[in-house]
Amino acid sequence: MLRNCARIIPGSAASRCFATSSKLTNMKSINLKLIMSTFLLRVHPDVMQVDRNSMKEVDQSIKDHNENAMKTLNAYLDIASAGCNGELKADDLSTREFPLEFFIPTTKKVQRSLRKIKTAGDAEVIHIKGNMYTRISHSVKLSDKLVEASHHALMHRRTVNVAAVHWRKDTNAVLRDLFRQADLPVLSVHPNGELIPW
């Protein structure tokens, strides 16, 4: 829609079309926490299970660790949502690094494969009280290109769509990696085949 507006309305009229728009004009808003719901359920300390057929409890140290990691993830998702939806504020960029680390019970399938190839010592797993947990880790760093595009959009609202696309692509890469490490399928309902449309 934005491109059509610029194409049809010449000169200063096109400029006015851009200037009056302070939000996304050719992309729908997205809900990152809804997109991440299957991952959040996988790592949330209140719903984690060692084994669906077992009464064993997830160790409290794992629950505590994931609870703290959830706070970091939620902080990142809040900022990323603002960026993806063209609602970013200047103070949102004060934090540029979000170290994410979760542990989830290792599936029986993965445990069997680790025993077969004998690489459990090298894999991202830990053992606590007889249970195996898989480490999920991603150190999110807002790139200079992303921050520059964001600052530019704050000063020139007509570029908000450009910044939003940067945010969506970067955020999509982060979410894809988290899904991969958690062994979760990426189910897309968007033409680009990704978790996030752009």
Automatic annotation (TrEMBL):
Taxonomic superkingdom: Eukaryota
Matches recorded under Pfam families: DUF4460
Domain DUF4460: 26-117
Entries under InterPro entries matching the protein: DUF4460 (IPR028031)
Protein name: DUF4460 domain-containing protein
Species of the source: Aphanomyces astaci (Crayfish plague agent)
Lineage of origin: Eukaryota, Sar, Stramenopiles, Oomycota, Saprolegniomycetes
